[in-house]
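[recover] target loaded
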């Protein structure tokens, strides 16, 4: 037996769940830097001391 008394929503009425106001997750900033220059004397002495040990 088919129940014909069911009320159907009009076609222009939205159906489903709408989530608004949520921003997409942002990627972490990508930054790479390379500094070209002389090595400080303290770094050279620390490296030499570690290699000698």
């Amino acid at each position: 037996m088919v129940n014909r008394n069911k009320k159907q929503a009009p076609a222009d009425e939205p159906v489903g769940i709408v989530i608004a106001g949520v921003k997409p997750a942002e990627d972490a900033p990508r930054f790479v830097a390379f500094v070209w220059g002389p090595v400080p004397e303290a770094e050279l002495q620390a490296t030499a001391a570690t290699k000698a040990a």
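[recover] notes: The two ends are 92 Å apart (CA to CA).
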